[in-house]
Fold these 2 entries.
Entry 1:
Amino acid sequence: MILYVYIKSIHIVPLLNASYCVIKRSLLELNAKINTTWNTQMELSLRLIKICMLASIALFFTLVAFDNIIDFNSNWLFVQHVLSMDTTFHEPVLMQRAITNPIIQRYAYYAIIAWEILTALFCWIGCIALFAKIKERNNHFNEAKKIAYIGLFFGFALYMLGFIIIGGEWFSMWQSSTWNGQGKAGLFISLIMFVMIFLASGDTEK
């Protein structure tokens, strides 16, 4: 009887070991598939979030440009007062920079609106380019970010160069308690930079 059990165990033990290896391999493969699926879904979700955030910037500049066209006088008054420096401290040295010619003022306003339209256009094109590559490899998705970066930089430049540097410092907009857009410009710059940083994060090339 003991001999019989021993002989049986010789055959059963290898079978159990083989079964254990098969089960272990299956579980590892299943875990790898789950991880791969999870990582893929997470990557797609993050990419979609990036596209939506870029689209929000594109929509913002679209509405800003549209409002400036249909409601021309609202921000036109702002541009007039900033360029003419009529609500600043009226320091003689700085007042030499004032632009009171209405034709030049109007063309400056046209340039701002055109810049807003251009920013919105590049951002929308960037959204389309990114969405077209949303399921592609990281290097292809990163390649599609270039147009989006251009659009975001245009938006950054508008408020940093146009409002903070030129308007705020050159035309002393900071001195005005009525026509001072530096606070809003700073907010818009922060939002644009946040989207730009988030868009650049992740998606490391494999």
Note: The longest helix spans residues 2-70.
Entry 2:
Amino acid sequence: MSVVRDEKQLSRAWKEGVQVEITRDGNAIDEFHRLDVMTRRRQGVPPHPRRFLHNLHRYIIEKNKGFCMVASVARKIIADYIYLLHGKTVLFKFGASDDGYFELRPNHFLIWEAMKWGIENGYTKFHFGRTDISHDTLRQFKLKAWRSGMGSQSDLPWAWFQLPLIKPYIQFSRIRLSNHLLPKAFTA
């Protein structure tokens, strides 16, 4: 995944009106469960138990040790990620999305927005979390995103960014997005 391709994915989400919201509201957990059922069914594994997710919300998210990041289009939630916070690290823990909206690239957008949030709130690391070696699609997504920001290293089942290393790139691209000044490579 090259920087230009990353920008195309983000540009697509932005142009199609994907909205991102950070929330600690329990309703986001219910939406996560709805999307998790769809995602895990697609993967052929059982979804996370609703009680587990509500306990995660009660004991971690409500205590400001995590948050949900929700992507929506026309008020319909199409992706929901759960992030945990520890020290100066933002940890991607769980993600779920509606495959009917993959072409809008909400997953790319949520990762991007979480990194921006981390930088803006003083975090120095972004951790993609563990991924089973047999889950090739997710592992490749994380590794490609990681390599686009840091260059390649060994093929690990987890990856992380040192956020200051990608800060100038994020700031530059955010300025272009917010000013609607998108070069050809960004809008193709």
Note: The domain at 3-187 is CATH 3.40.630.30 (Aminopeptidase).
